[in-house]
UniProtKB/TrEMBL annotation:
Keyword presence, RNA-binding: no
Annotated family: Belongs to the rtf2 family.
Gene Ontology BP term (one): DNA replication termination
Keywords attached to this entry: Coiled coil
UniProt-recorded name of the protein: Replication termination factor 2
Keyword Disulfide bond appears in the UniProt entry: no
Signal peptide bounds: none
InterPro entries according to UniProt: Rtf2 (IPR006735), Rtf2_RING-finger (IPR027799)
One GO location term (cellular component): nucleus
Lineage: Eukaryota, Metazoa, Chordata, Craniata, Vertebrata
Length: 286
């Protein structure tokens, strides 16, 4: 079948070779990571947050996800590790003065540089467009380029001055290996916090039990003391004193104590001896 009318087919039309791997445009991939929310796929707008794995989101999208996790979303797997709003940190970003925004090219008749980023590094001025590595601090949320932290080594934030450690640095939109490393650190950190919480709870339980045992011991001692008094000198007066020792405080005493807090109570009123005899007289004649 085919090849009628004197047509001469070529080799690539008859022999099917392996399919070519489709290459993703690198610029489009970078724009998707650094200009769009990883959850809602909408353009990033303040307030912007980042998770412990370095992914960037719009804060509104994270709040909507936490309020209704059952709703169907195309990228719900990227936020499966986010349990509450405490698992994300709001980023303290530095605006890029060269970025004029979307209003500059409303008509579409102006040149728009796709590599121009909304934010820059406050130390060296590198644009946050994916060509350079950026990190953020989990303590304060400030964002810097890796070059700035490498060239200016310090343990104090360059922007706000808060102290930080190397463990507080999180790579933004890192590679696959970097994300796996961050995920391992996140799991270890959460396990450590869970263990500390359990140990604190068990410690509080032990303290409460020891207090209960102490109270019971004192109660038993008081009962023994009363019984010894009753055996040594039986009589209505001794038993009455023991009952008074073990009797709970009367509600009348409590009410009197409460009333004494106010100036209208009898204990707050002054006696005649305490009242002064000074009389002020203002004459209306000179």
């Amino acid at each position: 079948m085919g090849c009628d009318g004197g047509t001469i087919p070529k080799r690539h039309e008859l022999v099917k070779g392996p399919k070519k791997v489709e290459k993703v445009d690198k610029n489009a991939e970078l724009a998707a990571k650094w200009k769009y929310c990883a959850l809602s796929q909408e353009k990033l707008k303040r307030p912007i947050v980042a998770c412990e794995l370095g992914r960037v989101y719009n804060k509104d999208a994270i709040i909507e996800y936490l309020l209704d996790k059952s709703a169907e979303r195309p990228n719900s797997e990227v936020v499966a590790h986010i349990r509450s709003i405490k698992d994300v940190k709001e980023l303290n970003l530095t605006d890029n003065p060269a970025w004029e925004g979307e209003r500059h090219n409303i008509k579409g008749d102006c040149y728009e540089d796709m590599h121009c980023a909304m934010f820059i590094c406050p130390v060296v001025g590198l644009e946050m467009n994916g060509k350079h590595k950026f990190l953020y601090l989990q303590t304060c949320g400030c964002v810097f380029s890796e070059r700035a932290l490498r060239e200016v080594k310090t343990e104090i934030c360059h922007k706000c001055g808060d102290p930080f450690q190397e463990d507080n640095l999180v790579m933004l939109n890192g590679s696959k290996d970097e994300v796996e490393k961050l995920q391992k650190a996140m799991e270890e950190r959460r396990l450590k916090a869970k263990t500390a919480k359990k140990s604190k709870k068990s410690k509080d339980t032990k303290v409460s039990k020891s207090l209960d045992s102490t109270v019971m011991h004192l109660l038993v001692q008081s009962l023994k003391l009363c019984s010894s008094f009753s055996h040594s000198a039986p009589g209505p007066s001794t038993s009455g004193e023991c009952s008074k020792m073990l009797k709970a405080p009367d509600m009348k005493d409590k009410s009197e104590t409460y009333k004494s807090l106010f100036t209208s109570h009898s204990s707050a009123k002054r006696t005649k001896d305490q009242i002064s005899n000074w009389v002020t007289h203002t004459p209306y004649h000179f």
